[in-house]
Amino acid sequence: MNNRFNFFxxxxxxxxxxxxxxxxxxxxxxxxxxxxVYENYIKRALFxxxxxxxxxxxxxxxxxxxxxxxxxxxxNIENKIxxxxxEKTLGLIKSKDIKSLYVLYLSGENYFFLLDTDNEExxxxxxxxxxxxxxxxxxVIKNQRKRILIQEDVAELSFTLLKPIVEKNKTVALLVIDxxxxxxxxxxxxxxxxxxxxxxxxxxxxFLLIFYMISTRYAKYTVYHxxxxxxxxxxxxxxxxxxxxxxxxxxxxxxxxxFKRVNNRHGQKNGDKVITEIIKIIVTxxxxxxxxxxxxxxxxxxxxxxxTRTEKELRKLLEEIKLAVYRANFEIGDEKFNLSISMGxxxxxxxxxxLQDVIHKADTALYEAKHNGRNRISYFDISQPKRLYREKLxxxxxxxxxxxxxxxxxxLETSALHHYEALLRIEDGDNxxxxxKILPDLEDSYLYTHLTKRVIEFNIDMLRKDSKxxxxxxxxxxxxVNDAILSILAQNSDLSDRLLVEILENKSxxxxxxxxxxxxxxxxxxxxxxxxxxxxxxxxxxxxxxxIDFLKIDGSIIKEIHHDKRAYSxxxxxxxxCEQNDIEVIAEFIxxxxxxxxxxxxxxxxxxxxxxxxxxxxxxLDKKHE
Length: 626
What we know:
Domain GGDEF: 247-382
Pfam family, one: GGDEF
Domain EAL: 386-626
Protein name: Diguanylate cyclase/phosphodiesterase (GGDEF & EAL domains) with PAS/PAC sensor(S)
Distance between the termini: 61 Å
Mean pLDDT: 81
Number of domains: 4
Radius of gyration: 46 Å
Keywords: Membrane, Transmembrane, Transmembrane helix
CATH architecture of the largest domain: Alpha-Beta Barrel
Low-confidence stretches: 1-9
């Protein structure tokens, strides 16, 4: 309901169109109620057209007989010879379709025959004429206009033409012509019905057209607008990129800091409510000519009109927005918290070639704001050297440039292939971009989750294409508590026996939630592996709190075991612990046979590394997967 109100409030023209159509429907309803009146009116109009020639002829004849004497009625009353001549002249008009033709004059309140051309049913001079519809006759005399009287109740007649005979601007008599042309009447009846129904059809078509126009516009409006905030969506920008005159705006790209943590902790539904609250805070600072576009998830594009503010006023405005968001208190359940936003701003939009260029530069400034501590505003410096913006990363992620290379994990005893680990790569022309070059820039942003989804979908497609292939994919602990990612895995659980999940630990792990997600995945048949154990943030809580099937020991330890006693002892201890707890061990970064032999002596079953094979694209793999 709120969205409909906003739609009509922003599109007044449609409100007036609907109002006009309602008036039209009232007119139609009134027309239908008085259909006989309107049908008769249409019939008379059609009769006038149909008897046009005869009407003109009768007018010419009348003109001749009236001009014979100074006073038409008295002269005909007094002179029988003149009456006979006039009756003969009028008789020339008669045809097979005319039953009778006569002239009446009014004396007092009664009509009398003056002339009559009918030979069979001749009415005598001065005989009283009984008028059945005196109102129509009186109107013809008063208005001095011809009138067609449709004879629906007289079997022998179809219609009667009444023509006033006027002298000195006064109606002195009436020419009455009774027609028996039933064929014409039938045709006109059909024509009137057709016109009536055509009018109704036209109104229905107009209604359908208006309904289609408004529903189409409304559908587009709902796609273009956030129903709760009435702000614009990214789809609006995509469809109207060429129409937006970006040069008349200052452009700011705002991002909610660390918002991924809110989604992971409280779920996307609660996260969306928080985003809506922040949007409502921001829009209170904007003017009518500004545009707020929900660019993606927790990112907002602000197009701020240059005509209504100076650059100094803009800087002050953005600081006020940032401070208002920072001071706002958000509440989900029993937890209260604060959030901040970072902004990247481009002032010199007038020298840019396209809206995409503008967004790229604002995004570069946003990147600087985040890397300089967040909760700050950074302005793009046109003297900065070109760099890889996050916006370009977005484009590469959403295009077909995202691929996976595959490195085999083999049985150390038999060298048989167990499965492949999928390793993310982005192909930028001839340049191959590795994850360590892009993931730090995407951390704590919606893009990281989007990238994870694309990697999962890429490998699901690969497994469906190749039924003999088994793959492990890397997910962070945050990914594992993301409902959207769990949903993708659940929907593709028929591949769980060939899709192994490797968990990468980040700075803060909620072990209870991660363990709950692991248990859900296990119900679907997935195997779980801890990746890079022994480095970074990993600790023994992995082994003590999580239900895992595989443990992958970090390569920085493995590559040292043949010449470092502490590394040797550490791997041996891990291997012994895993053997006692039914956990299979995978060693990575194996680069020679000596390391293989040591690992086999510890009971380590699986390994990967350049000693076996480097990571390669799918097309370069041994298709037999041996």
